[in-house]
């Protein structure tokens, strides 16, 4: 059975309204998805540096831990690729676990490499 996990830094700082929104998305999405790894859009923003912040719910429906290390991820908006960048998460996502995460797309991590995962908005 899929479980929702908040990385400790998220767990300490997340606003109650955001936690509720994530929990709702988790409950809805896990009914519709199965198998594999899915990065599903939650919300986006821009920071003071103009970087694109894309919050997602990472669903690892595999039985093994997921490690994202030098992983290329693309962000699509209205069917158009907006940005493509390389990421490494500081933690693994356990098997059969979903975890919220924010990917920061900036000039420093942009790449032209083919994406391993895509985020659709």
Description:
18% of the residues are buried. Helices cover 19% and strands 40% of the residues. With 121 residues, the chain is an alpha/beta fold. The longest helix is centred in the N-terminal third of the chain and has 17 residues, at 16-32. The radius of gyration is 14 Å and the shape is globular. β2 and β3 (52-60) form a beta hairpin. This is SLAP domain-containing protein.
Weakly predicted, low-confidence segments: none
Count of distinct strands = 7
Class from secondary-structure proportions: alpha/beta
What is the spatial order of strands in the main beta sheet? 1-6-3-2
Global mean pLDDT: 95
**Can you tell me the number of structural domains?**
1
Strand content: 35-45%
Strand-and-helix sequence, N→C? EHHEEEEEE
Give the biggest beta sheet. Answer: 4 strands, mixed
Task: Report the total helices.
Answer: 2
Helix content: 10-25%
Taken from the alpha-carbon principal axes, the silhouette is globular
CA gyration radius, whole angstroms: 14 Å
**N-to-C terminal Cα separation, in Å?**
27 Å
Q: Which terms summarize this structure?
A:
single chain; 121 residues; alpha/beta; 2 helices; 40% strand
Q: Could you give a short description of this structure?
A:
This protein has 121 residues and is an alpha/beta fold. It has one domain (3-120).
Mind sketching the topology for me?
Blueprint: E1 3-4, H1 8-13, H2 16-32, E2 37-46, E3 52-60, E4 71-77, E5 80-87, E6 97-105, E7 117-120
Parallel strand pairs: 1-6, 4-7
Antiparallel strand pairs: 2-3, 3-6, 4-5
Protein name: SLAP domain-containing protein
InterPro entries: SLAP_dom
């Amino acid at each position: 059975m899929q479980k929702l996990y908040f990385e400790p830094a998220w767990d300490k700082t997340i606003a109650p309204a955001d936690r509720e929104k994530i929990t709702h998305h988790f409950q809805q999405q896990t009914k519709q998805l199965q198998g594999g790894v899915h990065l599903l859009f939650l919300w986006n923003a821009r920071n003071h540096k103009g970087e694109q912040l894309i919050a997602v719910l990472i669903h690892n429906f595999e039985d093994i831990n997921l490690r994202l290390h030098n992983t290329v991820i693309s962000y699509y908006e209205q069917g158009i690729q907006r940005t493509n960048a390389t990421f490494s998460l500081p933690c693994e996502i356990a098997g059969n676990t979903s975890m919220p995460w924010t990917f920061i797309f900036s000039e420093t991590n942009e790449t032209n490499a083919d994406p391993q995962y895509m985020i659709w908005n």
